[in-house]
Model the fold of this input.
Amino acid sequence: MARGSLQYWQKRRAYRRLPRVRNYFSDSKEPSIVGIVGYKAGMTHATVAIAGKQEEARACTIIEVPRIEAYGIRLYKKERGTGYKKILKEFHDKNSAQRAGVKKSDDYNAESAKALLSETVDVSVLMAAYPKGMATGQHHPDRFESHISGKDIAKKFELANGILGKEIKPGDIFKEGEHTDIITITKGKGWAGVIKRFGVARLNHKATQKIRHVGVLGSFGIGRVLYSVPQSGQLGFNYRTEQNKRILKIGRKEDVESINPKSGFINYGKVKSDFIIIDGSVGGPAKRLVRIRKSITNVDSKGIKEAKVTYIATTERSL
Done:
């Protein structure tokens, strides 16, 4: 966090546990789902060779991906006057929607949905993640929306219609070596002063009656204090997006023994389902809900470089 940077303003608490996605990957090629969710398990280190180069030790984060099911399709139209997108209609698979906790859901009719495609400007898929049985201790599903990349509305609807009511695997969306964007909510630290929150310097103990505070609140005095002046307040539990984080490995449920420490990850436990290994750190504590999105900068446009993991540390001292 840069001192005085307005890029990270406002420093308020996130409104909900599910991180918001303001932009998503979109291109004119074949349509594809742009993102899923997972739960942060912990960190370790691995030996990785990228694009056949020399192996090197890299710090990495394990994200456990629960069972994810598509339970609905959402169609968007353009709002008159403003040009913004507005929900036109939602269609649910009745059985999947009931499992996801949607109270009102009718039987899905593909023909009635296709009749609205002439008014549709965008298509997205409604999904539900089921973490029951995982180390998170959570029993209720997390519902979220994932857009579909591409410009052909008919193809996007065809993709959404094909996966409705089916399980989505991380390997169906991402590939090993691909760059992604990680959207999460950082670790909450509560109320903090200006030194911890902004990194301002301590004052001389003879200058004022206080040391750990801001010496002046601006050129206008106390009559008008700008919002950009460092002051005490909430620290942490903010929405944050990290771009271009490489996927080192996409593991299946059968491969969890290769990453699980003997006593499990600290503050989490053992990974029991599919998982993704991300190069570097990921914001938030263990058990935090994380959204994994296709990179909007499209750094892999010239091809995905292979990432070969030869060793993953499972000793407790390395975690």
